[in-house]
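Dear colleagues,

As part of the handover before I leave the project, I'm documenting each prediction I ran so the next person doesn't have to rerun anything. This entry is a single chain, and its sequence is reproduced below.
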Amino acid sequence: MKVRPHRDEPEINFIPLIDVLLVILIFLMVTTTYSRYAELQISLPTAEAERQPDQIDVAVDAQGNYSVNQKAIGQSGSAPLAQEMRRLGASMKDPVVVISADGRSPHQSVITVMEAARMAGYGKITFTTQAASK
């Protein structure tokens, strides 16, 4: 009877490898220095901006009244606003809806304008702000 010696398959143990990698990672995280770059102090040029031709201006006052391109709409819902925006934007190619809302206007009024723009099929919406006085 021949007896063969029993050989165990080699086993790869990844736990020591993971431990070493974690120690290296912690070492790199602790010793890394983060340099901060100085911001450039620039003075931007000023210019008078004209109203873009493909722009629909919607204003909301503090009481929630609307006006579209200086035409008063009143406190209507989103459907009349969307109809007016569609009428004004019919001759424009992909117009931008610019919302100028009073700081004290109800939040729902601004959301109504955004909903009207969506109903009219316009996806580009922006808001106007003014710089705080010093």
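Helices lie at 15-31, 78-89, 107-120. Residues 15-31 form the longest helix (17 residues).

All the best with the project,
I.
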